[in-house]
Every structure is written in C-alpha cells, then in structure tokens.
Amino acid sequence: MQTNLADFIRDTAEGQEADAILRSCVHCGFCTATCPTYQLLGDELDGPRGRIYLIKQVLEGKPATQSTQTHLDRCLTCRNCESTCPSGVQYGRLVDIGRKVVEQQVPRPLSQRLVRSALKELLPRRWIFRPAMKAGQAMRALLPAVLRNKVPPPQPAGRWPAASHARRMLLLQGCVQPSMSPNINSATARVLDALGVQLIVAPKAGCCGAIRFHMNDQPGGLDDMRRNIDAWWPYVDGSAGTKVEAILMNASGCGVTVKEYGHLLQHDHAYAEKARQISHLTRDISEILPEFEQQLLPRLRVPAATRVAYHPPCTLQHGQKIRGKVEAILRAAGVDVQLCGDSHLCCGSAGTYSILQPELSYQLRDNKLRHLAATDAQLIVSGNIGCVTHLQSGTDTPVKHWIELIDSVLSY
Q1: pLDDT digit string, tens, across residues 389-405
Q2: Of 27, 157, 25, nearest in space to 87 by CA
Q3: N or C: which end of the chain has fewer CB within 10 A?
C-alpha cells in the first residue's frame, strides 16, 4: 500500500511504525473473512481492510469524522485478522495509533466521555473496584439486567498456599479478577504449589496498562506499565531477596499486554531494557504447565465422561499466538475437550467493549454460546477473566477458568 503521511505524524516514532504497517498491507481482504464485526454488519468499513483505509486517510491528513470514530470504536481488537493475514500486517498496533489520532480530532459527547473516564479510573484501581463490586453483588437481584450481567455472584477465593519453594514465579493478580473471580488466582497458586513452585505477588503491581492504553489514554497506560516494571524489578534482579524465574499470567488479556512492554516502551531510555526483560520473562500458565506434566498428570482424578467445551481467548490464540496448549493439557489429563465450530471468533467480551458496544457484544456472545451448547459439554472453560464472566452472563452452564478445573481434580 502506497502512503504519504502528513507532516504532523510522518517523523514521529508512531508515524514511522504506522507507515511500515500500512505498506505491508496488500489489500487482499483475507482478513474480512474472519472479522467478527464484518460478519455481523457486512460493512467494508467495519472490517480490518476498511478500517486500515480509514486510518490511512487520517494519517495522510484527511480530517477524521464521527463516522471514522464509530467504525474504529466497533473494532474488538481481537486480532483475528492478524492470524489470517498472509502479509503479517500488525493491525492491532495500527488501530491503537489510529484511534489515538482520531480521539484528538473528534470530540466525544459528554455521556461517552463520562463513561470512558469512569472505566479508566474505576477498573484499574482495585481499592475502588473491590468495594464497588461487593456493593453490586449485595444488590445484584435489584440491578437491571444490563448491569446484573456485569456483576457475578460472590465467589470464595479458596486457600492460598503458605509453603515456600526454591522455584519462584511472580503472579500478576489483575485489576478485576481478584474481585470478580478470586478463586482463579488461588487455584493457580495451589496448582503451582503442588508442583514445587511458589507464586509471589508484588504488592505494588497493578493494572497491566491495557485498559487505559486501549481506551486512547496511551500515556496513562504506559505509566501503568512503568509502575509494574518498578514493582517487579526487585524480584527480577534479586534485590528483593527473592529472584523469580518467570512472570506468570493467568489472564491472557493481561499476558498479551505485558509481553508487549518491550515494544511499547522501546523508545523510553529509562525503561526500554527492563521492559524487554519483563516481556521475555512473561509466560501464560498454559506455557508453564507442560514442563510439569510428568508430575501433574498422575495426580489428576478426572471423573469419567467429563466433557468440557473450551473457548480459546482471542488474546491467547491471536494476540500471543498460543494455540493448542490448553487443549493438550486437558486431554492429557483425561478430559473430553470440545472446540466449537467458531472457536477462532471472539466471544464479544474484548475488555471494555461489552460495556461500550453492548449490542454487538451480546450478539457475539449469543452466537458463541449457541456453538458451545452444540458440543453438549457439562462445563465451559476459558483462559481469560473477561471471556469467563461475559459467557457466564448468558448461560446457565458453568463457565470457569481452565486452571480451576485442574485445581478441582488435583489430588493434594
């Protein structure tokens, strides 16, 4: 694709990155075949190729409009298009750059600004989100359906192991996971403890940065990333008295972001090298467990005829390019794992998307649940808190993180 970027962005780091991405696109349109919003809406501008054209026009100096902003807002950033693209177009980075420019050019209505500000300030701060979630859970029966869907019933966390081990890893707790589904972190810690690995939580680590970054507050998102690096670094270099071998993620949405710290902070001279090392150390839990299969599998007691439907999160299969590992672990454990017919498609959660674009989000959720129901599974599992809570809001079939399933059948 030929480009001629405008002066305001041409010589910036983001402009040079966007230019390289745009030039790699050959207009083939393969991406439209796997784009969830294009499949729903059938509009070229609601598919990756159309959005790339819109971003190109804006970066070349054509003023952005409300319509431009709407089409970019409708993008899930699921990055399915990246998995499909034969040219390796890094669409996820391009749409972040494009959204940032459009946000600066197109003022949003007051109602949108208030909702977005609330999400950016509430979700990343556990000390605010936790009491808000508890209040919502206490009044859950009285909430309107649209809010009740976002407030899962209270769940016990389960015990956190107290044992110390020579092998240690850091765990990012996440923003909403400790309040919405606290057993995910505890189950992860129990499984790793049984395998001789101690999970450590750095007290000052917080939001991975994805919420602010993908809502066009990129400076705020980068600040969140720097705070995590500062919180983790004493455990990486050993100055905290404990040195870790990995940074473990059990929420793929956080994992894909932390793995990109090195790229996103490459021009920050104070953090570039640390960010690169942090990204290098970061592993999804599905990348960790295969190392321990010989220890783990003999201790699993899976009931006969346990059929489970697995929904691969977009941030795992498309963002991190991790495919097949969760299914392999569960099948090796004796679980009958089923993938639904549209397993490559987004469930509609996509971070804050289900709040900002509820109509499209619920259409995608309901489509996904129909396909999952066709597997006749007794349980649905996934690997990201957003997917788990979004899918559970539309079905009576239990939906859990897959590590909770491993924890429930592990003989301690």
Answers
A1: 999 999 999 999 999 99
A2: 25
A3: C
